[in-house]
Amino acid sequence: MVMSFEVEQKFAVTDLVALQQRLLDGGVQWKESVSQTDQYFAHPCRDFARTDEALRIRQVGLRNFLTYKGPKIDAATKTRREIELPVQDGPVAGEAWRKLLDALGFKPVACVRKQRRKGVLLWQQAMVEIALDDVAGLGQFIELELAADSQTLQTARERILSLAVHLGLTDAERRSYLELLLECSSPEPSEDS
Amino acid sequence: MVMSFEVEQKFAVTDLVALQQRLLDGGVQWKESVSQTDQYFAHPCRDFARTDEALRIRQVGLRNFLTYKGPKIDAATKTRREIELPVQDGPVAGEAWRKLLDALGFKPVACVRKQRRKGVLLWQQAMVEIALDDVAGLGQFIELELAADSQTLQTARERILSLAVHLGLTDAERRSYLELLLECSSPEPSEDS
Predict the structure, then answer these.
(1) Contact at CB, B96 and A104, closer than 8 angstroms
(2) Which of A153-167, B76-90, B124-138, B176-190 has the lowest mean pLDDT?
(3) Which of B34, B46, B124, B132 has its CA 20 to 30 A from that of A59?
(4) Over the stretch A103-112, which tens digit does the pLDDT of each residue have?
(5) Identity of the residue in B46, B85, B88 whose CB atom sits nearest the CB atom of A100
(6) Whole-angstrom distance, CA of residue B171 vs CA of residue B191
(7) Which residues of A touch B89 (CB under 8 A)?
């Protein structure tokens, strides 16, 4: 059996101009930029934060998707079950799905809006997938990703780490955008409580 | 404000041959027959039987729909909120939606399979909608339906009742097919319990 992995690291971008210059110098090939809006929902009787699950409506341009993410199966590789199903296009359909989820007791908890620019960069004979995200309320992030199997996993890890060093990226961010947003919006501890 | 109503009565069919003859004599115009499969789901933490709600995947031929039915707003007219949204066609997509609902904790409770033949019949100057259903596990039923507003409600009721008499239909069935199926499949009371 061949196990497949996604080796991925994410970093907050502190100097966008310098980073873009390094990517250009490295020969990055940019693809189109897309706007993604992810509306996340709370389950009516399960604490998704505790069960490490998520349900969201993802809007990519005019397209809509309903996505369920299961708990991580394996902490090291961030592998998780994901079911993403397309639903009807357009804002009217998106609103109808929000109403259906609301009727079933799912409540909106947070909305992650980002502008994502994807690209690829050749690094040590491998095509590394790049995503440069501008996340509303959080700022800029870059993700580096390589697919691997059991045989190539260690090499892939080393490639991603060395590319990060080359690009001047430090302090990898392990939390998801949703987790970061929920931490931002947590109420301050109150003396009255 | 104009209130609109659906005046509807359903009857178990005891003599299908005689009924079909009476419908033909009355000049029924049959439309195409369609196969409908409704998979109903239990909510992970709400008793739909108690809250008078329902969630189902409806399959009509190759088309799939996700349908939420809210509680009846008004017992007299059976009016209820309904959100029905098309999802991707075909059995593979239907199965993917079942998996997504299962992952969220919704469990299949019953499946209503029927062959439905729709038609119209002119009766006392009104076009009455007819549905002749062959429901797996339950047998044959006929539904008579007329749309009405506040002004025509009483007339519509009288028309449906007199057509039922004319067709030899007695003992209107108020329960839904889902309710009838769940009653059928309830375990027998046990002396050990």
Answers:
(1) no
(2) B176-190
(3) B46
(4) 999 999 999 9
(5) B85
(6) 33
(7) none
